[in-house]
Amino acid sequence: MPNAEKPAPAGKLRMGMVGGGPGAFIGPVHRIAAELDGKIQLVAGAFSQTAERSRQAGESFGIDPARAYATYQEMIESERRRPDGIDFVVIATPNHLHLPVATAALSAGLPVMSDKPATATYKEAIALQAAVANAGLPYGLTHTYAGYAMVREARALCASGKLGAIRKVAVEYFQGWMSKPIETTGHKQAAWRADPAQNGMGGSIGDIGTHAFHLLEYVSGLQVTAINAVLRRVVPGRRLDDDCNAFLRLNNGAAGTLACSQVAAGELNELRLRIYGEAGSLDWRQTDPNRLIVKWLDGPEEIHHAAAAYLSSEARAVARTPAGHPEGYIEAFAVLYREFAEALIAWKQGRKEPLPDTLPGIIAGVRGMRFIERAIASDNQNGWVDF
Ligand code: NAD
To answer: pTM here?
Structure first.
């Protein structure tokens, strides 16, 4: 019997992680966020490329040494045979492993929570979508920013129609950490991101452009229908784009811009979304995530605070601390894990409903990979391409 068909444990969902070994960036965030709400426990992993480093990681996380595996294949195979085997697999590896790990997990009856981008190529994303459909198992994608209370508020505001018909959108994600060729100096995170074989063909557009693209569609409720993108490799010798400026057309006739860069010197994680309707607009910045600025054509500017009683039920549902006590990246990540865990528990109890639409999944994953593929096609053709 696949693990996902076993009754929910009285305690917590058992998580097996691939990636997140010593020195990894996002693996530790997954681990902390997954466990924050007390619904999930890390019990197994293939944390690194070598058995020794996986063992070291397992030891530091306090899991049973027998469950720190040398490879993800071994983890999936061994955990299947255990009565207390893992309930789902988390993927926190470089992008080229997302598809093989996800398909191995799904074929073994294990739901998946994957980091973005969904895969390394658009073709792979289509294959993954088919694998998810065939398995009929939950698949979540950690587009972190979807977990912020004020992103949920912005989304509810757009859906409410109070802004009027949306006319213009502007999303940007600027970082500066790749301003020099650090991939040639042993910087681990930069090295695989600059290598098409491990990263896929989208450089800055894959790493952070996909976040910006997702945020735009997630909050506005609109879909991009055409793109005109200019990609650049600013740092000499770099094989993938490190900077992008794109014009967008949206399915309601609105227009927009998407800009991302990893050579914006001095910027850390400057993600900002602005949406303009006929009657008003909103402005959210990841560096000030507990506030949403709302501006009205015929009224004063407003500042909406996370967890305030006047917010939408969607925003209040995910706020944890009283208004004025800041929440951030870990809490937003944990919101996605909580939604995944609740859906998985219901699913294991026989209520096999789709994942909530607040939680990014395979459709968002395919859209993100399409964005990369279309942006590259547009850049190659020097002009507009349909989506
Ligand atoms: P990283 O290089 O810091 O960590 C990758 C980990 O995967 C390392 O521990 C490495 O040893 C391990 N690994 C590599 N090959 C493996 C294998 N065959 N088996 C098991 N483990 C293996 O990279 P990162 O910055 O943490 O990025 C990982 C993923 O997370 C990427 O897909 C990236 O796009 C994504 N990411 C998402 C966010 C977000 O906000 N959601 C932020 C950063 C990174």
So the answer is: 0.96
